[in-house]
Amino acid sequence: MTMKLYFDPHSRAQVAKWMLDEAGVDYEIVPTLLREKAHKTPEFRKINPAGKLPALVDGRTRLFENAAICLYIAEKYPAKKLAPPVGTPARGRFLSLMVYSTAQLEPAMGDSMLRLRSNNSARGWTDFEEAKDAVERELGDGPYLFGAQFTAADVMIGSMFIYLRAFGGRSNRPRIDAYVERLQARPKGMRFG
Ligand SMILES: N[C@@H](CCC(=O)N[C@@H](CS)C(=O)NCC(=O)O)C(=O)O
User: Which CATH class is domain 90-184?
Assistant: First the structure.
């Protein structure tokens, strides 16, 4: 049975699509337009109770949240080498970066784009500048977060900065900007719209 990706081209569903495209697997797009509020219907909420895109259905498995979808695809298709294998030392850093991308980088960038200011560290994430420092440190000399190996962590972290660009922003960090250009130059790199 073909996997179904619930998708609007003007949404973060592009992140899950990028991952599926990098894995080179078959999937079907189920158009779910935000402007039609297709993501707020009772039927869609049976797949994603949060009423947000993306969501992925694979037979009897349902997934929501990009990080979960990317982890699932990397795990389902190990031959595609989109994650360090379970049991290898790099796996811990990989899992950490996957969660970091959505638990810290995404809200920090969201605050910055929306010009929300808070220096209350109790909120659970740093400000965007500190998040960029962390990404630069983890990227090192690259070209990807795991050196020469492109992984789902690049999809999750890189997509945040691609998204920033799509909204007219720049990281103002040459090393991150060069990383984003490398990611977008990939044949299946994430596109918007
Ligand atoms: N952390 C979530 C973010 C999902 C999210 O916020 N999706 C947006 C699209 S960019 C959405 O569905 N917004 C519509 C809404 O909340 O009504 C993920 O990565 O899946």
Answer: mainly alpha
